[in-house]
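Researcher: We plan to redesign the surface later, but first we want a full-length starting point. Tokens attached.
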């Protein structure tokens, strides 16, 4: 049974998107723009701005934007799409074959479907978007019941416990019990 406090997709629109992506994209653009503005100002005040140094600062700012821009995650029943600046990967979550959540610094969930398509999702996206997580979890259960989900049940259980722990912590914090 799904908790009542978790926002669900509207009945007519079954697509769930990362609700924080737009803000993170604006922050990436702001950081890159700030770097460009400050570097051009400092360079102009120091020795005078040249075309080559301006192009270098522009290239550096564009590189920073590309590094900071997060992938956009969208889910609908049976499918998750992860779109970065350079690629778009879509997998069938109702036909998951493997889920990997490696230990370590990088917190990415690697999903592989029965056709061999792979996608990586930042775990923070799932923690920040309960409706997206619930859709993925329901599809993973369907895959397990259908026999396609063979690898990574333990990793998915570990992530489920993490989502439940973070959700409970948020509820206690909001209610003033923590």
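Model: Full-length starting sequence:
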């Amino acid at each position: 049974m799904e908790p009542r406090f978790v926002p669900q997709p509207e009945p007519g629109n079954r697509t769930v998107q990362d609700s924080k992506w737009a803000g993170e994209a604006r922050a990436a653009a702001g950081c890159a723009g700030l770097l460009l503005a400050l570097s051009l100002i400092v360079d102009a005040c120091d020795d005078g701005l040249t075309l080559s140094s301006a192009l270098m600062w522009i290239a550096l700012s564009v590189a920073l934007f590309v590094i900071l821009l997060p992938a956009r995650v969208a889910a609908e029943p049976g499918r998750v799409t992860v779109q970065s600046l350079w690629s778009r990967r879509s997998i069938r979550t109702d036909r998951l074959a493997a889920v990997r959540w490696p230990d370590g610094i990088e917190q990415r969930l690697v999903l592989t479907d029965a056709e061999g398509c792979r996608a990586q999702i930042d775990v923070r996206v799932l923690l920040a978007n309960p409706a997206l997580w619930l859709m993925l979890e329901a599809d993973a259960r369907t895959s397990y019941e259908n026999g396609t989900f063979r690898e990574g049940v333990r990793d998915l259980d570990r992530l489920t416990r993490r989502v439940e722990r973070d959700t409970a912590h948020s509820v206690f914090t909001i209610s003033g019990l923590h």
